[in-house]
Specification:
- With 338 residues, the chain is α+β, with helices and mostly antiparallel strands.
- It has a single domain, classed as Beta Barrel (Catalase HpII,  Chain A, domain 1), CATH 2.40.180.10.
- It is built from 7 helices and 9 strands, in the order αββββαααβββαββαα.
- The structure holds protoporphyrin IX containing FE.
- The site of protoporphyrin IX containing FE has 30 residues, from helix 1, strand 2, strand 3, strand 4 and helix 2.
Length: 338
């Protein structure tokens, strides 16, 4: 894209929204609390994960409209932590079909941060899942679904009660649809923000694109720890790399801010690479590796850990501004690292 992207995006915020978002966040927090087995709660969602250290390098010669916030200086390097996760709020087998997450925390990022009381922190987070959009319409539907999923046998019934039969059939179909290719490794999978963030005067979706392709004989995990073990094994013998790409808002139909069910198609808005993320060779089973993994586990990855130029946008993002804070508080997550 050589010409400057559109700045014509808008958020639409209903007057009674915030109250509902707070109630939704409290519902997720209550589920998290009820699940607590040991002294400490797990994350309300994405309870099972594994963390590593990494480095992000900003691309050289980026176009003017990509030199925003942390990406302003060509070739700049940031230390980072990365956590790969399964979406469920319960730690379960990697063999189960689930949402897969990738969370990245950059260190040493200058500029005032968005969360009140955390303005002088120096971290910038990016959270992504392994699908480019979500079939879930909004935060209310998201919370309804998470609550209903607590008792899988009753899920369709509970959803039908809350959302009506037509919408339940639509949603269950979309959520249980087998992907075209099985999820075989975090290291060879692509991750998307699925929701927009501001990018200076523009709005974007971002995506982490793996440098390595899955081998032709790659298989879905066959053991409970299959996906987590795969990462540990790969990193023992070499690095794992992802390109960080962005695509710009074009117009409200093709690239809506408030409707997360619409995929921002590459044919409407091509991605450009703005940085490269490398998880260097490391041994997660060494004493140092275990310590680092524990450190990452205790961190809070939150889309609102962000500079003002990269503000999260849209209803689901505004919901996350409450939900992550309550989940983080409930489990006593660590302060932001320096
Ligand atoms: C569709 C876009 C979304 C994406 C890409 C996404 C991604 C993620 C990821 C990757 C994690 C794991 C973070 C980590 O490793 O620490 C996470 C955790 C979490 N997500 Fe989301 N999520 C989305 C939507 C939502 C929504 C709409 C809500 C609630 C309204 C929500 C609530 C949470 C909570 C409570 C956690 C646990 C936070 C913690 O204790 O650290 N997410 N999400």
């Amino acid at each position: 894209m050589s010409t400057a992207p559109s700045t014509d995006w808008r958020e639409e915020i209903p007057a009674d929204e915030e109250e509902r978002l707070i109630r939704g966040a409290e519902t997720l927090r209550d589920l998290q609390r009820a699940r607590k087995r040991s002294e400490k709660s797990d994350r309300a969602l994405h309870a099972k994960g594994i963390g590593f250290s990494a480095e992000l390098t900003v691309g050289a010669d980026l176009p003017e409209h990509a030199r925003i916030g942390p990406f302003a200086i060509s070739g700049k390097k940031y230390g980072a932590y990365v956590r790969f996760s399964n979406g469920s709020g319960k730690r379960g087998s990697d063999k189960r079909q689930d949402v897969r997450g990738m969370a990245v925390k950059l260190l040493g990022v200058e500029g005032k941060k968005l969360i009140a009381g955390m303005e002088d922190e120096t971290t910038q987070d990016f959270l992504a899942i392994a699908t480019p959009f979500t079939p879930i319409r909004d935060a209310d539907e998201f919370v309804t679904l998470v609550r209903a999923a607590e008792t899988p046998a009753l899920l369709p019934l509970k959803l039908a009660w809350a959302l009506g039969l037509g919408r339940t059939i639509e949603l269950v179909k979309a959520l249980t649809k087998k992907p075209a290719t099985p999820f075989t490794s975090f290291a060879t999978s692509r991750f998307w923000s699925a929701l927009p963030i501001q990018f200076g005067p523009y709005a974007i979706h971002f995506s982490f694109v793996p440098r390595a392709a899955a081998s032709a004989d790659a298989q879905a995990p066959t053991t409970d720890e299959g996906l987590m073990d795969d990462l540990v094994t790969r990193l023992k013998s070499g690095p794992i790399a992802f390109d960080l790409q962005i695509q710009y808002f074009v117009d409200t139909q093709k690239t809506p801010i408030e409707d997360p069910t619409v995929e921002w198609k590459e044919s409407d808005s091509p991605f450009i690479t703005v940085a490269t993320l490398v998880l260097g060779e490391q041994d997660a089973t060494s004493a140092e590796g275990i310590k680092q993994s524990e450190l990452v586990e205790a961190l809070s990855f939150d889309p609102w850990h962000a500079v003002a130029a990269l503000r999260p946008l849209g209803n689901m993002m505004r919901a996350r501004n409450h939900a992550y804070r309550l989940s983080t508080q409930e489990r006593g997550a660590s302060k932001e690292p320096r």
